[in-house]
Amino acid sequence: MSIASSVHCYLELLCFRSVGLTQHGFYKVQITVDFLDGDTLTIAQPISCHQYPDSVDIGADLVGKATIDQESCRYDSAAFYMQSELEEAKMNDICCFKARLEANLALRSSALSVNFSLCHSYARVDGLDEDAFTSKSTIKVHISRPLAGVHELYQVVFPDEHYSTLDVVIHTTMAGCDVSRDICGDIEGLEIGQVERPLRGLFDRLMVPVVQDLEKLQGTLADMRPFLPEFASIVTLTQEIFPTGWSEPDYQVKRYWDYLLGVCLQGSAEEISKRIQEILLHALYYISELVAALVCISSLRPEIVQMYYLEKYAKYRSLLYSYAVVPAKTMVDSPPLMSPVDQEAQQKTMASSKRINPLPASTSPIFEEAQPDIHLPTLPVLFADSYESPNPTIEEAKPQSGFHLIVLVNGYMGSWMDLMTVKNFIGRKFNQRVGFLLSRANEGDDTKHDIMEMGRRLAKEVVDYIGEYCATDLGRLSFVGFSLGGVIIRAALVHLEWLKDKLFTFLTLSSPHLGLMYSSSVLVGTGVWFLRVFTNTPSLDQLAMKDSSHIESTLLYQLSAHPGLQWFRHVALFSSSDDNYSPIESSRIELTEKAIRGSKKGCYFVEMAGRLLANIKPERFLRVNVDFVLSASLDHFVGRKAHLEFLKNPQFLTILTENFPQLFL
After folding, report:
1. What confidence tens digit (pLDDT) does each residue in 611-626 have?
2. Which domains does the chain have, with CATH numbers?
3. Which alpha helices (DSSP H) does 563-622 contain, by range?
């Protein structure tokens, strides 16, 4: 049993942002829509598109107009020119697709797919060549219940060398229906006392999703009211189409049901089917009015509508990804040097539990992707230890205006490209509010050199960049270091004290701040020994604290006495107990059991940790242990895989930016 229905899909293209585009030139977005109803694929036809004249472009020029290709059933946005990273184009395009399909009574079998293709064309002297566009990246977004109504913002992310985002509001709604007589076949011929139960089942499967769509639209317009005071009359008008009592739970469902039941007790199957269609069309009329109001407001005030949807989207993502973070706050006078006994085992148990328990119902995804941002079986779980002083001092806030420069520094034998994914995830979340310097001062074999020399080179690179690009408007300066890069940053701070009033966040990903003195992996220890003995690698000698026969003369011991970390507003140390390349205590600046047993070497270790954390206010300090899900491999066996997950695990990087925004704002 089925009904023939018309379905509309409205797409409001709000803003395109370049995060890590590596090719300058012209870009445009091509969109197609299709419905999969059982085994039947229906291609939706684009029926209209509008590019409003008050579209605003910032950092990019819109070229030409949005068009519809009826033959290919495709919408093409206006082209826009991108010449560098961190640019954006405000588009304010609205297009509509329509399809006619057979939907079963549950309105659940039809799945909608929206296909976004990012196309590129090089700039030519004689202008834009529309025929020269080639597709560079395609993203397919699935909506499992489009006929029940969707009215949400979705951020399309084009990955890899064309890393960029497109904010698009998606509306899907049933626009019409044709109910046949045979839909009531199970009811016809039944006695009056037998009609109510099967009719109620039919009604619930068919009508309730449509009424839910009405409720979503009504709620959306009500939520928009504070954002759009000048459109209060439109919002109020939409409320008038509903009778008194609409706000009561299930009021509209009960109203329709009472009407239908009265008809069925005295009507034929043909009459019942007509009344069902009448009820559906009655509700669909209201839906069309509300969608028209939303589209009208979007066309007149796109920037306000975008703000509303982005705030709603941000709240949803924050709620979703907070599931992966286990916070703990401790009242202390200074950052502690020890973790609780058995903390690692307890965290492993808790992480496993989170991966098998379902997500909260409020975080159920509306949109589905082939590679979703969050996937429970492989979810990294972050255990965040923050601290608070019993008598916190009121600090004068650093100015938030000006350019926030984030410097990213690679590890041993690495390159600036290693931090590209980290940079892209931060840029995706905080685009237009931060800028980046992917350090090239110490790459490849240069990372074998003396750490203090590498710190000097990094400091010079930072000073030169500031002098060339943001000498007059530098507001904040932050550092993100991976592995050895975190230690190099500390060495650079020796030369950057004059910038201490600008320093904001010091964030390290598995950096051995206390060296490799207490490495937990025999294999890693053996590998480091081999490289030290048979190659000229001063940096490894220094990390192993073998660069001098006297520990008090080693670089790490002496560097621990230099000030630096206390200059930052935030000090965040990320580590993983599965990472054998950088011992977890070294990454977290904590003491090991071996270090506190009283050996002479352990005494130096304790002293180094105490020096590093001295004068850091507890509320500025954060330790985060990440429990990754790692597949069996040689890299996992030696502990390297967990080390590299900090750079390339998309779930971890999303959780980092969604749950710790204070580190970047």
Report:
1. 999 989 999 999 999 9
2. 2-314 (2.60.40.150), 323-663 (3.40.50.1820)
3. 584-588, 600-613
